[in-house]
Amino acid sequence: MKPFTLLTPATVEEAVALFGQHKETARYMAGGTDVIVKVKEGWMGPDYLINLKKIPGLNDLHKNEATGELSIGALVTHAMLEQSLLIRNAYPIIYDAVSNIGSLQVRNMGTIGGNLINAVPSADGAIPLIALDGTALLVGPDGERSVMVKDLFVKPYETVLTPGEILTRITIPAQVPRTGSAYIKFGRRAAMELPLIGIGVLLVVDEDLSTCTRARICLGVAGPTPLRAVKAEQMLEGQPVTSDLLTGAGKLAAEESQVRDSVRGQAWHRKEMIRVQVRRMGLRCLDIINQKARQA
Amino acid sequence: MTKTISFILNGDEISCDIQDHWTLLHLLREELGLIGTKEGCGNGECGACTVIVDQLAVNSCLYLAADVQGKQVQTIEGLAVHTGSLHPIQQSFVDNGGIQCGFCTPGMIMSAKALLDKDPKADQEAVKHALAGNICRCTGYVQILDSVAAAGRQMAKNQGEGAAAAKDPGTITQQSMNKKAGEVIT
Ligand SMILES: Cc1cc2nc3c(=O)[nH]c(=O)nc-3n(C[C@H](O)[C@H](O)[C@H](O)COP(=O)(O)OP(=O)(O)OC[C@H]3O[C@@H](n4cnc5c(N)ncnc54)[C@H](O)[C@@H]3O)c2cc1C
Ligand code: FES
Ligand code: FES
User: Which residue of A130, B7, B12, B153 is surrounded by the most CB atoms within 10 Å?
Assistant: First the structure.
């Protein structure tokens, strides 16, 4: 591995200043599960790695009980999310997505922020945060700004972050009652495999437990960036959600997707799986909603 | 850049000079001579390099040595006691045929230990989930799952005895002997 100097700032401001000093010879590092692989393989060769792990507060995970807003620090690991009861109970789509990223060893190191900023079309962690209308908080040399997670991605390996910007946390607005959400990493095997296709669905229904008031259908490996199948979402909104309607939405989502043939899978197969899995995930959302309604 | 770090390795406090770009795997094998931890892929894919840092199983091939500063690191060398008595997980792998060529074994055992230390009663699904990042080319995994299940039963039993012995300080239990696992066997 090409030698580098490891810098360990104690605050976000210090990290940004270090980046300003070293510019493109520096690279931020969170869990390192992407960065270290790339340095080892010679795909990148930074002179400085700026280690974000020692900055207090960046791995904070909490829900503001007053506002209902969930805040996920960028340095929260996939394992922390997987093991959080709050996530498991209230945000099943996040649990579904992170619990099958890589292996437990990878999840113990890899962070949600690194997963987003790495910006691969297959990023399992991105799909639920898009479906939940998450917002990314960025801090850089020119101050702070926020960007919807869905608008973070430009193309593979590229985000809207400007040089030196750090993702500090992701916030998820309060969930309305009667929300159900689910994700499936579809492939030959969930662990230690990138998904052939990733499908996340979130549904909110009216008090009749049937009429859809909000739908999110988010797809991974279905285009150059994680994306939303907006037409399919619109097909569901305002309608009573039935298995047939979900089948229709699945078809439309498959058409809207920009799936390709690749070494890992063929476009036609990916489309078929979107069609099938949008329906299945939609039905799972309804199950979750009904189960909660029975408990209430 | 060279820096000095100190951390706890298999129960012993140690301090050593490292380079920033060294992985923990490099530090353990090449500098400290602890060659029980294996390098398979070097990229997080195989689990052969698994060690436990602050109770969490990690791939030492991707973990920077600098990051163990102030932490507790356990490697396969820390499991058996110097009298030669194996840790229950090691003994179980021997008894249940969980080892063939042995290359994956240190990683498998460390992944299993991270799980069973928290939950010796982990069911088979939980064991599979925790071991999914450890690849074995020999056994076909069935014997490994059997080994972990049997080890879990033994560890749960030892814990029970440990709790009983806590009330009766006269008894030395297997578990309290294993606690002395600090001595490094190379
Ligand atoms: C064996 C293996 C299996 C994997 N399996 C999966 C999988 O199934 N699904 C999946 O989605 N991913 C997978 N990954 C990829 C990777 O583990 C995840 O993307 C992980 O979440 C990356 O997080 P990290 O903290 O390790 O990122 P790092 O490697 O530390 O960083 C990744 C990138 O983000 C930048 N960065 C990190 N944090 C910040 C921040 N806060 N602000 C600004 N920039 C930042 C870094 O500069 C770098 O460019 C796998 C990786 C390995 C090695
Ligand atoms: S050597 Fe580390 S995972 Fe293969
Ligand atoms: S025993 Fe040979 S790789 Fe597992």
Answer: A130
CATH 3.30.390.50, applies to A179-295 = yes
Distance of residue B43 Cα from the nearest chain A Cα, in angstroms: 6
Give per-residue pLDDT as tens, A21-31: 999 999 999 99
Q: What share of chain B is helix, strand, coil (3-state, %, to 5)?
A: 40, 15, 45
Interface of B with A in 52-111 (CB under 8 A): 56-59, 62-64, 66-67, 111
Which pLDDT tens digit goes with each residue over B70-108? Answer: 999 999 999 998 888 999 999 999 999 999 999 999 999
Residues B66, A6: C-beta atoms closer than 8 Å? yes
- Rounded Cα distance between B23 and A1, Å, is 9
The pLDDT of residue A232: 98
In the CATH hierarchy, which top-level class contains the domain B2-78?
A: alpha beta
Pocket of ligand 1 contains residue A37 by CB under 6 Å = yes
Whether the CB of B43 is below 8 Å from some CB of chain A: the reply is: yes
Task: Yes or no: say if B136 and B101 are a contact pair by the CB < 8 Å rule.
Answer: no
CB-CB under 8 Å, A36 with B58: no
H or E element in which residue A184 lies: strand A179-186
Q: Which contacts qualify for A141-148: CB closer than 8 Å, 24 or more apart?
A: A141/A16, A141/A19, A141/A20, A141/A165
Class of CATH domain A61-172: alpha beta
Percent above pLDDT 90 for chain A: 95
Q: Determine how many CB atoms are found less than 10 A away from the CB of residue A99.
A: 22
The reported pLDDT for the residue numbered B165 is: 67
User: Cβ of B134 under 8 Å from any chain A Cβ?
Assistant: yes
Residues B120-178: tens digit of each pLDDT: 999 999 999 999 999 999 999 999 999 999 999 999 999 888 777 665 444 333 433 34
Contact B129 A104 (CB under 8 A): yes
Coil, helix or strand at residue A276? helix
Share of chain A above pLDDT 70, in %: 100
User: What tens digit of pLDDT does each residue of A155-191 get?
Assistant: 999 999 999 999 999 999 999 999 999 999 998 877 7
What is the Cα–Cα distance from A156 to A120, expressed in whole angstroms? 5
Was domain A5-51 assigned CATH 3.40.640.10?
no
Burial of A276 (C-beta count, 10 Å sphere; 0-12/13-18/19+) = middle
Q: Per-domain residue ranges for chain B?
A: 2-78, 88-168
